[in-house]
């Protein structure tokens, strides 16, 4: 039976699907999401499989739906609700859906093309109108009675231009021409220089900027444009001018030769623009109606097409029997869900009306099953932390249940502050209350999604930080006097130790707990608030937090005990119990467990009166390895003998850990042939095929392959490489022994980060909030408002976000390296079921909110 503590018991099953009901059966299995299909055609190219045409048809429908979705978003129409979950359509209905989508695409494409043409015409007419209005200022408004100048009335400055003798040009037979149009504002200067250099001064360029913004036909953004009018002599110059205009992507329009023609053109343009606006308005209304009708079904179509494509993809993984009437597939499935799989196959056969039912048959396998650990919305975040290190090996002990408690607790040890923890818990509690809000769940901000997915982790981290903040008696770097201090200053005066002159002459005075009445008893919860006023507060907290970190680290590193549950209890490797687990446990507890004992014993055995003569734990721990006594006071009677005994046990466990397993495997392979045959018979007799395959794999790892009697002789002839086994075990022994030292020191980060967080919080209070509270004038309240705002911003950004991220990463490191490394291999393969529920994540990439 599977649980969060260990992965689900998996089995390999074979599905026999009738050809007529295979589609419906796969659809039902997709709705349940209980099986993972294996590819039975690995050597067949994906383009040569049976249902490749159906998949191409689904991809074509996906393309059409993508086009519809882009048009709906362009029209700024609301997208449909995502609460619907239609079933996969029947294969006979796929052609009707395909035809409906193709008709809708063709209609929308035609309407869109017509709309784009109308918009292009409207844009050109608008530009033409602006060009005529602007060039009207270039025209001559003088007399029209002089016949020789009638054809040049638009350019009276030609008569006054000394550079051009137009009467001479006229005698040569050259004709005067005009080119007008629009150009983008950034190009006009380069355009003017190019015109002058190429045309050698035989052109006259006049231009003026339009006051209004016009739409850019390429980008669709509003841009500034310039109207220009060019006069030139001769056809050759005119051709050069047109080529230059084409190079600069100018929009050219015909220029009227007279005022009457200009007036007629302007009036005609006004009428056509009005008609185009009316047609465009009706086209937009019709297009919105079509898109609105399509938007009501686009999400349903998307789900149906996705499910249909997924079903055909799975069918391509199946193989056909010799009669081509039955599809055969292999699936991984939890043993406890086999009944639900049978029920799904029966339901699919009933819906399809098949005469022969589809069925499932459990088959034996030597392959390692995938790992399935069922989680909920609370445990999924902690399971993701474990899976980031590595997916657990099949049936391996899962660290997630322990991580639910230890991860937020170790975070809180480094982050402990009542105020900061309260802010974090309130923020996480708000996310938990609105966890079903679609806008919060389906955003495209990856940082927010990370916070939202880990809302329960943040909630526990905040609650544990509140607890450790109470223990540290720290709230925004200030202590809370909830129960009254256990220290009394009055007793010092009553005993005559302090006098009034002492207070005036000394900045600091020492409270003596040995005087009656000075120390009444310990604070009920956490550290006494009087330590917040003490000069040696930092020294006291350093000693307290350092020893606490060592104790918590050694207790937390006992994840090696879980390795015993893995190897001995479940995988039945009893040799590892005596040759690996016990030496590791003895080495750790004889040395570092004894260190914890000395810390706790010193706390309990020595009172305040004896504190000055209390021995140093560090000195005694060093003398334990040197096996000598420095003449210091002993912690307890018989300490030297106990320390020597524990050191000998720890040292003897090292060669057992180094040589025990390799020698045992060598003896097992070369000296226990008869025992191996007996063990092989026993294991076959035990029953289940899964246990048989599991024990076979374990025997192979131990060097004994006797689970299969028919091949026992071959395994007996094989010789294990004693050098490789010894090298592997030697590396493990060195890593473990040195790791116990380095990992214990690594837990001192609990002390370091807790101290850093407390000091940073105190600095922030003194440099920001304390300055605002010191102002005692009438304007102090007004000054306190921005100071409090600055204090709040710095608290959230530095102490909550940056310090919180730092403590989170260090807690993650302690779990991955110091805790999970002791027992967790993480070499498994994650169970990936065929489930339609996972299709919702693909809609975010396709544009659905």
Automatic annotation (TrEMBL):
Keywords: Coiled coil, Hydrogen ion transport, Ion transport, Membrane, Transmembrane, Transmembrane helix, Transport. Residues 94-128 form a coiled coil. One of its GO terms (cellular component) is plasma membrane. The chain crosses the membrane at residues 409-433, 454-472, 546-565, 577-601, 644-667, 779-802. It is a multi-pass membrane protein. GO terms for biological process: vacuolar acidification. GO terms for molecular function: ATPase binding; proton-transporting ATPase activity, rotational mechanism. It is found in: Membrane. Its main location: membrane. It comes from the Eukaryota. Belongs to the V-ATPase 116 kDa subunit family. Essential component of the vacuolar proton pump (V-ATPase), a multimeric enzyme that catalyzes the translocation of protons across the membranes. Required for assembly and activity of the V-ATPase. This is V-type proton ATPase subunit a. It comes from Gadus morhua (Atlantic cod). The gene is atp6v0a2b.
């Amino acid at each position: 039976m599977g649980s969060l503590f260990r992965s689900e018991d998996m089995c390999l099953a074979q599905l026999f699907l009738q050809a007529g009901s295979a589609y419906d059966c796969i659809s039902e299995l997709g709705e349940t999401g209980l099986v993972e299909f294996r590819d039975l055609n690995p050597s067949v190219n994906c383009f040569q499989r049976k249902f490749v045409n159906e998949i191409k048809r689904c991809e074509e429908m996906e393309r059409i739906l993508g086009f519809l979705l882009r048009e709906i978003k362009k029209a700024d129409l609301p997208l449909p609700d995502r609460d619907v979950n239609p079933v996969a359509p029947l294969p006979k209905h796929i052609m009707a859906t395909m035809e409906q989508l193709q008709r809708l695409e063709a209609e929308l494409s035609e309407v869109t093309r017509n709309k784009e043409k109308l918009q292009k015409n409207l844009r050109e007419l608008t530009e033409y109108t602006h060009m005529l209005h602007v060039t009207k200022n270039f025209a001559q408004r003088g007399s029209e009675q002089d016949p020789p100048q009638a054809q040049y009335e638009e350019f009276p400055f030609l008569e006054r231009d000394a550079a051009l003798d137009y009467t001479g040009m006229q005698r040569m037979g050259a004709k005067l021409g005009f080119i007008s149009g629009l150009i983008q504002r950034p190009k006009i200067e380069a355009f003017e220089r190019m015109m002058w250099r190429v045309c050698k001064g035989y052109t006259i360029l006049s231009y003026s900027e339009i006051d209004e913004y016009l739409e850019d036909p390429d980008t669709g953004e509003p841009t500034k444009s310039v109207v220009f009018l060019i006069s030139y002599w001769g056809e050759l110059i005119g051709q050069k001018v047109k080529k230059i205009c084409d190079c600069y992507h100018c929009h050219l329009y015909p220029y009227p030769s007279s005022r009457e023609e200009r007036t007629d053109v302007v009036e005609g343009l006004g009428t056509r623009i009005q008609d185009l606006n009316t047609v465009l308005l009706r086209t937009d209304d019709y297009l919105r109606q079509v898109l609105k009708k399509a938007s009501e079904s686009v999400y349903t179509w998307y789900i149906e097409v996705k499910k249909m494509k997924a079903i055909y993809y799975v069918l391509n993984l199946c193989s056909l029997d010799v009669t081509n009437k039955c599809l055969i597939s292999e699936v991984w499935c939890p043993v406890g869900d086999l009944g639900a799989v049978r029920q799904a196959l029966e339901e699919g056969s009933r819906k399809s009306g098949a005469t022969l039912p589809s069925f499932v048959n459990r088959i034996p396998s030597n392959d390692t099953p995938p790992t399935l650990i069922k989680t909920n919305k609370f445990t999924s975040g902690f399971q993701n932390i474990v899976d980031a290190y590595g997916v657990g090996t099949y049936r391996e002990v899962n660290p997630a249940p322990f991580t639910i408690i230890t991860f937020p607790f170790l975070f809180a040890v480094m982050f402990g502050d009542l105020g900061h923890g309260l802010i974090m818990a309130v923020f996480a509690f708000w996310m938990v209350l609105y966890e079903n809000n679609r806008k919060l769940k389906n955003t495209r901000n990856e940082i927010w999604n990370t916070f939202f997915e880990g809302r329960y982790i943040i909630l526990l981290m905040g609650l544990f930080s509140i607890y450790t903040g109470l223990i540290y008696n720290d709230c925004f770097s200030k202590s809370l006097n909830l129960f009254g201090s256990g220290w009394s200053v009055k007793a010092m005066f009553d005993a005559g130790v302090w006098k009034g002159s002492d207070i005036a002459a000394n900045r600091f005075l020492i409270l003596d707990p040995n005087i009656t009445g000075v120390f009444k008893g310990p604070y009920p919860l956490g550290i006494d608030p009087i330590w917040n006023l003490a000069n040696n507060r930092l020294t006291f907290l350093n000693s307290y937090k350092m020893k606490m970190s060592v104790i918590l680290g050694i207790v937390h590193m006992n994840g090696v005990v879980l390795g015993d549950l893995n190897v001995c209890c479940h995988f039945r490797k009893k040799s590892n119990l005596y040759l690996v687990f016990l030496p590791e446990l003895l080495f750790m507890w004889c040395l570092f467990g004894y260190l914890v004992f000395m810390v706790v014993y010193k706390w309990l055995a020595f009172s305040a009166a004896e504190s000055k003569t209390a021995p140093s734990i560090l000195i005694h721990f060093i003398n334990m390895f040197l096996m000598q006594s420095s003449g210091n006071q002993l912690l307890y009677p018989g300490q030297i003998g106990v320390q020597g005994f524990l050191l000998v046990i720890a040292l003897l466990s090292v060669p057992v850990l180094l040589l025990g397993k390799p020698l045992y495997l060598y003896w097992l392979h070369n000296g226990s042939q008869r025992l191996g045959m007996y063990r092989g018979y026993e294991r076959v007799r035990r029953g289940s095929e899964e246990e048989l395959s599991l024990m076979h794999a374990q025997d192979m790892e131990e060097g004994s392959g006797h689970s299969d009697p028919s091949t026992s002789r071959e395994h007996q002839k094989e010789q294990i490489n004693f050098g490789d086994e010894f090298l592997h075990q030697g590396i493990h022994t060195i890593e473990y022994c040195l790791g116990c030292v380095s990992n214990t020191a690594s837990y001192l980060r609990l002390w370091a980060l807790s101290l850093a967080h407390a000091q940073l919080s105190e600095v922030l209070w003194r440099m920001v909030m304390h300055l605002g509270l010191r102002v005692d004038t009438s304007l102090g309240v007004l000054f306190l408002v921005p100071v409090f705002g600055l204090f709040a911003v710095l608290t959230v950004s530095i102490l909550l976000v940056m310090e919180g991220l730092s403590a989170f990463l260090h807690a993650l490191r302690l779990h991955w390296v110091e805790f999970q490394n002791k027992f967790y291999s993480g070499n498994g393969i994650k169970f990936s079921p065929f489930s339609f529920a996972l299709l919702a994540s693909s809609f975010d990439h396709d544009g659905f909110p």
